[in-house]
Amino acid sequence: MGPVEEILSLAKRSGVALWTEAEQLRFRAPAGAMTAELRTALSTRKTDIIAALGRPVLVRKPLSQRLPIIEYHRSRWDNIRSGFLGIEFVNSPHAAVSIPGELIVSALRRALCIVAARHPILRARVVETVDGLEFALSPEDDIPLEVIDLSNEAVAQRQAVARIVVTERIWRPFEADARHWLRLFAVRLGETEHVVGFVIHHFIADAGSVGIFLQELLHAYAAFASGVAPGLPDLPCQYFDYISGMNQWIRSAAARISGSYWREYLRNAPATRIPPDFEVDPEALGLLATQSARTSAEAVVDVQSFCRSSGMTLHAVVAAAFIGVMAHQSKAQDIVLVTRTHGRTDPALLPMIGAFFDAMALRAFVTLEMSFHALATRVWNDLTRASLHQNYPYHLVVPALAEIGASNIAPMMNFLDQPAAKATAAAGHVQSFELAPRPPIQHPAKRYGGFYTQIAARTDGIYCKAEYMDIMYREATVTNFVQAICRLLERGARDPARSLSDLLAD
What is the count of structural domains for the chain? Predict the structure, then answer.
């Protein structure tokens, strides 16, 4: 629990009611409840408390067939339509699992219908109207299910053919006029072996949604296959209620306070990047390449133990390792990292499918003489405070960077705590299905002016994958980068009092 949460908890236990009014913090307290300690805490953290109290309001409303998008997602939509956000972005919410036993297609169709009825955003696509961009909904039983039969393939070839078939369907582009933004398919390999896979358009779902959809689909399928009704709990609200709340919140006092926080936090922030091996025209086209590394399974236990003993989250510790390596390899001390956030700032959003993800900046002043524990503590404190302002969309921060003398060049990190794998584990005997390698994709160099790094925590290791432009960086440069992150995580968790320079030494 961070300092603001502790203050709010103390106020609640003391019977002190807090609210915001005209960008001011107001309170009502019983006689004697407003102690000097609580009054000082409220005064010291007033700005952060106002931001924490000013979260979007979620109100359950009747569902209609046409609903507006989040207003500030217009630029995201434009980047999708222009191709700037490529297929690796649009099709990233996907999963495929192997399920033993007979494939009961009727049970899978019923499961799809019930999940689509629970989460209407799965039936949505964006349409242009006279009122602007809106979501249009199809009926819950209208989403198609494709069944591919590979049982006639030679037994020795079935798995290889299935990998190609599944991978092709996951990375097949969504057509501009596609009626559905969810594709579900099943591949029959034999009487008792099949694969179920899906891809959801990233404008309506995020990484957290993948695990939710997979777990509910498999739960409902198992129930229907057994002849019983699935017992899924009611949802407190819908993604469209969140959209309505965000469209109102962005014009609120809390949003203005959060916008001011980011402008002050990033004022005069320098560019952060590993110096490229080759300087190129930002419009030059190159292939998007990837390099990966991972820690050992033992290191996962060590990192998790360090998180528990220090009271930090795994996200903060991973971000600290990234920032430490960036400082070491860029030879800079003022480091900015843009990190993806899950966006589910209200507990009511946790079981919900939707595109909640956003990003926020972390800024750390690093010296290689400081210990890994000191760096992780610094990043954790910044992440805790920045999280109070994470409702403010990062792409509204970017236009203000020039005004505050800050650079817009910073690497992005997406941390995943393996939501799909958790869902498959909870679903019983299913296993993740290995996809074929995705072909390289061509992009303008400006799209990847910095690294895009994805770090995923699994039981067998913490995986680090960096995407980069092959016309800007050599393979060896990127390989060294991802290996250094894994090395710092392993060594830092085991010996957090050692200096970064010692931990990063080859």
Answer: 3
